[in-house]
Amino acid sequence: MVLPSYLVHVHLMSILVLILFNYTIILMKKLIAFSIFCFALISCGEKQKKEVVELPPAKLKALIIDGQNNHYVWPKTTMMMKGYLEETNLFTVDIHRMDSVWLGIKYNQSRPETYTSFIETYPLTDKTYNISDSPIKISEFAFDFKDYDVIISNLGAESPLWPEKTRSDFESYMANGGGFVVIHAANNAWGEWEEFNKMIGLGAWGGRNEKSGPYVYYNEAGEIVKDSTDGVCGSHGPEYEFQLTTRAPEHPIMKGLPNKWLHTPDELYERMRGPFENATILATAFADVEKNAPPWDPNIKGLGQNVPQLMAINYGKGRVFHSTLGHFDYSMECAGFITTLQRGTEWAATGTVSQEVPEDFPTADSTTSRAWK
Questions:
Q1: Does residue 97 share a domain with residue 161?
Q2: What is the pTM of this model?
């Protein structure tokens, strides 16, 4: 039977429509699959990009140098500072202890711990060293400072002068952008090292005198005075609580800290001398004439001026944070000491401060301590 021509055309059209319909479905499936594939690639890329952005930055490398200090508590205070810096999650901290060690002086014989208790309790397990009965006169210390973002000195009075090459290497490290933190008695060392005196701004004892530079302080009018009067370099009274006054509230280390805050019992260093170049006084304390008079020298009274306690110094491209605080372990338990150490070390290493001021920071009338374990 032969179909009419119009029926043949209709049949052929139906077949063509069916073929096109099936092809369209196949094409749509492929487009959907391709879209899903592209979306997956984009999502994966965004995820990878997000993961890269969220990777934590490399930690700053800090080094604490100790082993020759006139304060016999130094093995413990080194460990305290190491812990304080590590708890910020910004630093990894190494310790370099001198091969020959001097424990220093037990100033107050009534303290219950034995003279050797701190070095016995806080040794470095990977190092052996000889303990000297008296201050060490000669140093063969050499070190590659470039491996670190910041160096913290927990040395003290009577520390022997580093060899000439080591001093030159450290000067280059600092001039090229290194960071340096000077804690308490570390400013007693090396009065004869001219560039070190420039780094720390002002120093105490260590053979310094009026030729080393003037006394520097704030007077009652809030003016910085450079006083070239003859006299001793370095003095303090018995340990006591004293109030610090912020002098550079916009400096990264001090930004957000209260104008005045009370510090735990400590030695209030005064009558420091030095070149005081490229230096900023961050905080002062009032050296009372009677309260800060040294009991061992009746000829000296407190200066009666607002003297520097925290300083920031620029040395070439390098940065120095100088803190006179931290005579004993309880002095370093002060939340004010801890906070300024953490912020000052970050600034010395980077030039910026990312840390917030803690809620327990001392007030003008009340100090705050954190028991260290």
A1: yes
A2: 0.85
